[in-house]
Amino acid sequence: MDRPWKKHIPSGNPLEIEIPEMSLTDLFYESVEKYADKTAVTFNEDRYTYSQLGQLVKRFARLLAAAGIEKEDRVALMLPNCPQYPIGFFAALLNGAIVVQINPMYKSNELIHVLKDSGARHIIVLDDLLPVVEAVWAETDLEKMWIVSKDKDKCEMMKDLLSGAEFDYSVPIDPGEDVAVLQYTGGTTGRSKGAMLTHRNIVANTLQSAATTRINTEKGKERVLGVSPLFHVYGMTSGMNVTFYNGGELIIVSRFEVSEIVDMIQNLKPTIFPGVPTMYIALLHYFQSRPFDLHSLKSCVSGSSPLPLHVLSRFNEVSGTKVAEGYGLSEASPVTHRNPVNGLQKPGSIGIPIQNTDAAIIDSVTGKPSLLVNIPGELVIKGPQVMKGYWGMPEETKKTIQNGWLHTGDIARMDEDGFFYIVGRKKEMIIAGGFNIYPIEIEDILYSHPKVLEAAVFGVPDQYRGETVHAAVVLKPNETITEQELEEYCRTQLAAFKVPKVITVESELPKTAVGKILKRKLQEKHIAYLDKV
Fold first, then answer.
1. What are phi and psi of 405, to 5 degrees?
2. How far apart are CA 227 and CA 239, in angstroms?
3. Which of 17, 129, 386, 405 could form a disulfide with 380 if both were Cys (CB 3.0 to 4.6 A apart)?
4. How distant, in Å, are the alpha carbons of 207, 210, 315 from that of 214?
């Protein structure tokens, strides 16, 4: 395949890298040995060196083995960001078990679905979340809970680990076949599915992601602000795994609270920040009223959803760095594209395919991968990071992975330089009066209004036009504007058929734990309202 993006990979970053046939735990323990005395994890006042972290992982692995965990058993992690997360994660993998990533914000129905679907036998859970787990216990296959507290002095598990014996055997792993993680899709468009990510998938994506920042990274010296949730595939790879592979210090933050993050940037001087658009929006808004120093950040990456263009431009200006937008999905471990950290970057683009990755746009006529320039179609991807399939869903797997190509469900285009642009989700595309309308185009206009903080655009059924365009916005503090004024603003910059027919001003927008706006919930709310009038 012709790769027009090849010329834009900066010198020093190869187009292809070697992916070793090794387990994720082997990769981790290579760093434990190489960076033994360096700080691996910082959490509040606690510090753990690589040697200490490696010992704690082995001790917990011994406890899991003694409790009956065997190869291919599923161990669920229902934790916010805390040191026990990487400890539990790698300890389960040492036993050959499969980690089931669970959002700690899940309610009973969501939790039951993931636990029953995965068949998890053990769960590592935060003490504050015990009532939720206990309420669903009888409806699952769970046999044992391991209870964690963010307060080390109250955490019996940590006390046991600090005084226990290490795990003294290893379970054979076939990296290409053995599943390391069941990463459940966000469920923003329906029932979540468990993406089976093998050891090789995650090792590959860790090395691929590290290669994209190789020029800008000093091994053993970087401090990474780990605020993106580790239970989310983006935080797991771009936050935890890449940091450990590079021998960096992972500054673990339980949740994003903008004033606390600003203090951390000021005091701890992180050098790398893998964030999501809502975080950059919040930091920029904070900066505009109370400026602070961002210049310790030499590498910033944005993923999960598109970063509004004016936010990208302004953040780059005040930070003195370049936010490299990227793209990924749970089914690809997750990273597939990124703007070169040192090299040509195109605002609004997700960048170019990362090392060892091919990407194409499906031709709407032939249904086959094509490299037609600037013609929207479904983005498809091929690479070593692409999942094995969906857990227990062979038919769904066949629909999603065809001839080795992962069908993302996202509508994209590729320009003449090989840079890709997300136009919208296949399921989010609005068809109104025969016109194809992509929400991101309208959202960029709404975000450009000086009074708008957040925006979401979605389609609502309409008997005459098929669908109509609706929008929901959140205003910046102490700002007011009428819906009519926003509509007029859109009319000055959009074709008439793209202008939202309904715009509502909300106090907040529903989001996933990683900060992605849940348009489905907004859509359901608007449809329910229309049904009543």
1. -95, 130
2. 8
3. 405
4. 10, 6, 23
Q: How far apart, in whole angstroms, are the C-alpha atoms of residue 270 and residue 264? A: 8
pLDDT confidence tier of residue 11, bands split at 50, 70 and 90: low
Q: Residue 98 sits in a domain of what CATH number?
A: 3.40.50.980
pTM over 0.70: yes
Domain boundary among 156, 172, 188: 172
Answer whether residue 481 is part of any domain. Answer: yes
Q: SS3 of 379, please? A: strand
Domain range for 112? 49-172
Number of structural domains (the chain) is 2
- In tens, the pLDDT along 106-144 reads 888 889 999 999 999 999 999 999 999 999 999 999 999
Please state, in angstroms and as integers, the Cα–Cα distance from residue 488 to each residue in 37, 173, 429, 448, 491, following that order.
60, 60, 23, 14, 5
- Residue 359's alpha-carbon distances to 69, 244, 325, in angstroms, are 39, 28, 17
Distance CA 67, CA 62 (A): 9
Q: What is the domain-level CATH number for residue 472?
A: 3.30.300.30
Whether 409 is in a domain gets the answer no
Out of 28-37, 279-288, 495-504, give the one with best mean pLDDT.
Answer: 28-37
β-pair type (122-126, 74-78)? parallel
List phi, psi (to 5°) of 199: -55, -45
Report cis status (omega within 30 of 0) of the bond before 172: no
Name residues whose C-beta falls within 8 Å of residue 199's C-beta, 6 or more positions apart in sequence.
Answer: 22, 23, 24, 93, 173, 175, 176, 178, 180
Cα 41 to Cα 60, 85, 103, 244, distances in angstroms: 17, 11, 21, 9
